[in-house]
Amino acid sequence: MSQLTENGRRALTDMSQRYGLSLDAVEAMAHAVARGGGTMAQFNIPELGGSGQWMAGGMTMVGDMFDHSLKARVDTLCGELAGELAQNALFTKPQTLAGAAWWPEELGEPASVGGQNTTRYAYFPEAARVVFDPGNGLPLVLLDTGDHRIGGWSQQQAGGGDRFMGVSFSSQHGQFLLSSLPRVGAPIDAPEPHATTAPPSDATPTTQPEAPMAPPPQPAFEPAPQAAPPEAPAASSAPTAAPAVQSSADEILRTIERLAALRDAGALTEEEFSAKKGELLQRL
Question: Is-contact 42 36, C-beta < 8 A?
Fold first, then answer.
């Protein structure tokens, strides 16, 4: 069922006519932009090429990475929706945008917020903190970002032991899982609880010392050394074995997306990014 206000319906109907999309498609994208705090969106809308991702002033990914017209269409639509969300209430239910903070008030305003399904996160660079809301009734988790300068976010299929639902980030050091960051203090009750269970009434928050920074995992991708010449292939009388598993098109697109995030974060040069991208595209 639609959750649009009267003003929201008028604004989104106008956009649907101008962009040649159904009202349902524009409303779905508006929800995606709202979940991303007006700075990013993760969506799966058939009329816009299926699954994709948008970041304000940055990268736009769509199902067909060579469809530049569709990329521009998505980028323009998301930018217009972000502006509309910042000025008007489009939904009858509160949206995660200006004035609807769910993180601890003392952290101030985040540099970026995002989420997918029921999970959400907010990044506070001045406080060197990330707040994660698992969205399943458990308390908020406060994480220490150390000297990371986070420039992008992504979410992959989570493993069984990852309570952060596969959320990862890119910084000047590379690509890391959110679970690699140390926790700070005790879990925090969300200001806007959406849980069906509550913590015991006699449980009082305690202040714990910050956990020492664990050695970060190796980045998912490392730029190839420029000084060392490429190794010559080892001589062998046996034919070269074909790869056991071929990367699917979706895996290649996700890999290119992560490479782009590393490039934007300064971990890869433009030349290294282009070379790796060309190599991956040859597998399609």
Answer: yes
